[in-house]
Specification:
- By secondary structure, the chain is α+β, with helices and mostly antiparallel strands.
- The protein has two helices and four strands, in the order E-E-E-E-H-H.
- It has a two-stranded antiparallel ribbon with strand order 1-2.
- Strand 1 and strand 2 form a beta hairpin.
Length: 77
Protein backbone atom coordinates (compact mmCIF):
# COMPACT_ATOMS: atom_id res chain seq x y z
CA UNK A 1 0.00 0.00 0.00
CA UNK A 2 1.48 3.34 -1.07
CA UNK A 3 0.45 6.38 0.97
CA UNK A 4 1.67 9.88 0.35
CA UNK A 5 3.88 11.15 3.11
CA UNK A 6 1.42 13.91 4.03
CA UNK A 7 -1.91 12.09 3.79
CA UNK A 8 -3.39 13.43 7.03
CA UNK A 9 -4.94 16.92 7.11
CA UNK A 10 -3.49 17.63 10.56
CA UNK A 11 0.01 17.23 9.11
CA UNK A 12 -0.56 20.12 6.67
CA UNK A 13 0.73 23.52 7.76
CA UNK A 14 -1.96 26.06 8.59
CA UNK A 15 -2.92 28.52 5.90
CA UNK A 16 -1.50 31.92 6.83
CA UNK A 17 -4.09 34.20 5.28
CA UNK A 18 -3.95 37.82 6.38
CA UNK A 19 -7.12 39.62 7.32
CA UNK A 20 -7.54 42.95 5.54
CA UNK A 21 -7.66 45.98 7.84
CA UNK A 22 -9.64 48.09 5.36
CA UNK A 23 -11.29 47.87 2.00
CA UNK A 24 -11.11 50.69 -0.55
CA UNK A 25 -14.54 52.29 -0.65
CA UNK A 26 -14.12 52.99 -4.37
CA UNK A 27 -12.77 49.74 -5.90
CA UNK A 28 -13.14 47.26 -2.98
CA UNK A 29 -9.41 46.41 -2.99
CA UNK A 30 -8.40 44.83 0.30
CA UNK A 31 -5.86 46.86 2.29
CA UNK A 32 -3.55 44.94 4.62
CA UNK A 33 -1.19 45.96 7.41
CA UNK A 34 1.78 47.77 5.89
CA UNK A 35 -0.12 48.85 2.76
CA UNK A 36 -0.63 52.52 2.04
CA UNK A 37 -4.17 53.83 2.29
CA UNK A 38 -5.80 57.21 2.68
CA UNK A 39 -8.94 58.48 4.37
CA UNK A 40 -10.90 61.63 3.51
CA UNK A 41 -14.28 62.33 5.14
CA UNK A 42 -14.56 58.69 6.29
CA UNK A 43 -13.93 57.37 2.75
CA UNK A 44 -11.01 54.92 2.55
CA UNK A 45 -8.92 55.05 -0.65
CA UNK A 46 -6.25 52.67 -1.96
CA UNK A 47 -3.25 54.47 -3.56
CA UNK A 48 -4.59 54.07 -7.12
CA UNK A 49 -8.04 55.48 -6.29
CA UNK A 50 -6.47 58.27 -4.23
CA UNK A 51 -4.38 59.30 -7.26
CA UNK A 52 -7.48 59.30 -9.45
CA UNK A 53 -9.42 61.29 -6.83
CA UNK A 54 -6.68 63.92 -6.64
CA UNK A 55 -6.52 64.21 -10.43
CA UNK A 56 -10.27 64.79 -10.55
CA UNK A 57 -10.36 67.48 -7.85
CA UNK A 58 -7.05 69.18 -8.66
CA UNK A 59 -6.89 72.31 -10.76
CA UNK A 60 -4.87 72.00 -13.94
CA UNK A 61 -2.05 74.54 -14.12
CA UNK A 62 -1.29 76.31 -17.37
CA UNK A 63 2.50 76.36 -17.06
CA UNK A 64 3.06 78.42 -20.21
CA UNK A 65 0.69 81.16 -19.00
CA UNK A 66 2.32 81.09 -15.56
CA UNK A 67 5.80 81.52 -17.08
CA UNK A 68 4.55 84.32 -19.35
CA UNK A 69 3.11 86.11 -16.31
CA UNK A 70 6.46 85.78 -14.53
CA UNK A 71 8.28 87.32 -17.49
CA UNK A 72 5.84 90.25 -17.58
CA UNK A 73 6.01 91.04 -13.86
CA UNK A 74 8.07 94.03 -12.85
CA UNK A 75 10.64 93.30 -10.20
CA UNK A 76 10.44 95.85 -7.38
CA UNK A 77 13.27 97.18 -5.26
Amino acid sequence: MNHPLNDKPYLSPPENKQTPLYKCDICDEEIFEGDNCYKIDDIVYCPECMGTHLQIIAETIDIEAFLADLENEEVGD
